[in-house]
């Protein structure tokens, strides 16, 4: 068999259709933005030829964190707020894998807030997609870290009065190498931004505005509020900080694309057997 034939057979063997990534019917509310984000993720896996056995989705707890269940790739459904440490450890141990972490604003910025800061700082080559609906949807509509202070609801009459968490600002200040915002109602744009994040070395953070039509039906208006960012992507963190601090939360696109080298593990594979390793812990 000649080289050209071998290459052709390899390409056929490694080709995957969309169905190869679809892992069941999503159990999200009809109209939830997470449905569109799942479709974007499945399409990018197909279009970029990500091999299912070399791709891992890691999540925590919440509506959006169910995403790994609907992917025919490897997945890890972790505990509340701990998705990023799991994803970081996995990538350091298995650098040849494509590791994508998914979650929501509650999981990522509340109990997982400290992990978020340090994942940005470490700059390990993983992509973190946060489906931000500014509410705890799975637990019946409590205010989340990104909820506006005057959002009036049954559970928070008159609003929380608390300044909302600013994820893009925090990501940039903490050292994320790629910072972007997308909108679930623009699946093609979301797909392209996530692809760019996966390809960019280092920690990539993507906030995807994902309307919760059940507890925040007013978010349907986001479709009329979002817009492409009026300025080009920058590699200057000071320029990016000024832009992010002064926008209204609806500018879409890649807002920062840095050149900081991704974290490289100094660990090497060990040939030590389990019984040999256990001897080191004998007292």
Structural description of this entry:
- There is one protein chain.
- The protein is α/β, with parallel strands linked by helices and 283 residues long.
- The protein has one domain (34-265): Rossmann fold, CATH 3.40.50.970.
- The protein contains 10 helices and 8 strands.
- The chain has helices spanning 3-14, 33-47, 83-93, 105-111, 113-122, 167-174, 187-199, 222-225, 237-246, 274-279, and strands at 55-59, 74-77, 98-104, 127-132, 178-183, 204-209, 227-228, 251-257.
- Strands 2-1-3-4-6-5-8-7 form an 8-stranded mixed beta sheet, sandwiched between helices.
- Strand 5, helix 7 (187-199) and strand 6 (204-209) form a beta-alpha-beta unit.
Report a brief summary of the structure:
The protein is an alpha/beta fold. Helices cover 34% and strands 15% of the residues. Mean pLDDT is 90; it is low at 4-12.
Helix content: 25-40%
Number of helices: 10
Distance between the termini: 59 Å
Name the strands of the widest sheet in spatial order. Answer: 2-1-3-4-6-5-8-7
Can you say what the CATH homologous superfamily is?
Thiamin diphosphate (ThDP)-binding fold, Pyr/PP domains
**Overall geometry:** globular
Uncertain stretches: 4-12
């Amino acid at each position: 068999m000649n080289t050209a034939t071998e290459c052709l057979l390899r390409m056929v063997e490694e080709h995957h259709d969309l169905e190869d990534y679809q892992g069941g019917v999503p159990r999200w509310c009809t109209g939830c933005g997470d449905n569109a984000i799942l479709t974007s993720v499945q399409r990018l896996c197909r279009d970029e030829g990500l091999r299912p056995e070399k791709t891992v989705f890691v999540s925590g707890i919440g509506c959006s964190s169910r995403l790994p269940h609907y992917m025919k790739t490897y997945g890890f459904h972790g505990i509340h707020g701990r998705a990023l440490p799991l994803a970081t450890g996995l990538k350091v141990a298995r650098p040849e894998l494509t590791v994508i972490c998914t979650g929501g604003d509650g999981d990522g910025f509340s109990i997982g807030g400290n992990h978020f800061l340090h994942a940005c700082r470490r700059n390990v080559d993983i992509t973190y997609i946060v489906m931000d609906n500014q509410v705890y949807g799975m637990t019946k509509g409590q205010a989340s870290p990104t909820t506006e202070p005057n959002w009036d609801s049954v559970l928070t009459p008159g609003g929380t009065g608390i300044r909302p968490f600013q994820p893009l600002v925090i990501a940039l200040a903490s050292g994320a190498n790629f910072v972007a915002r997308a909108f679930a109602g623009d699946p093609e744009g979301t797909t392209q931004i996530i692809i760019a994040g996966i390809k960019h070395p280092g920690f990539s953070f993507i906030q995807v505005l994902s309307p919760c039509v059940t507890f925040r039906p007013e978010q349907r208006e986001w479709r009329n509020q979002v817009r492409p960012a009026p300025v080009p992507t920058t590699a200057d963190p000071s320029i990016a900080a000024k832009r992010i601090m002064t926008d209204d939360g609806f500018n879409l696109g890649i807002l920062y694309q840095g050149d900081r080298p991704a974290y490289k593990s100094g660990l090497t594979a060990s040939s030590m057997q389990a019984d040999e390793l256990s001897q080191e812990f004998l007292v």
